[in-house]
Specification:
By secondary structure, the protein is α/β, with parallel strands linked by helices. It is built from 10 helices and 4 strands; from the N terminus they run αβαβααααααβαβα.
Amino acid sequence: DVIVLGERIRQDHPKKPIILLGHSMGSFIARAAAGLPNPYSKYIFVGTGFQDPLLLKGGRAIVKTIRLLRSNRSASKMLDDLTFNSLRKDMRKKGLIKEDHEWLTTDTAQGDKNRDDQVLGQKFSVGAYQALFDLIRQAQSLETLKQTKRPILFLTGEQDPVSQYGKTVRQLARRYRKYANTSVSEIYYPGMRHEVLNEAGRDKVYRDVLDFITN
């Protein structure tokens, strides 16, 4: 869908550069798409990370087992605890948050909106976890990295547990520099969490995005 949408945009605006920005799960979609033929001229990956291949393999095996017992639409507390709940738990241990909804941003007004958003609070289904794990596997495969050939910008908050507080984005950037035939830039934001585009200091983030797009 991401590639089809980009092709449609290119048809409507053939002389304009098209930039692909993906955040969180969308960043894994964007990274996977970057390894395929596509119309995009630059990539911006926000709130992304690198997953240990062995842990990812284990997660996929757990999902496969659960799917033998339940429908794809069912929820799984085990999978929730291994993924999203573990991120928030780690932030609590570090004293970064007191309430679950705070893990996304330090902006209290935005945090209140997140807390009250019933759609945002929906749990992943077993089938959604299967799709997520498969997507991550594709996004971080060497084949995908080697086929990524256009400039990349990573944006991450240093309080974002998805990137292990910036650690795995640094790891990712090194992998792209080693295997991808392209330039790679990284920006780390002190004090910011998972949704840097919704952070209290987001004006700086948007300026960085604009600079990357226009230069």
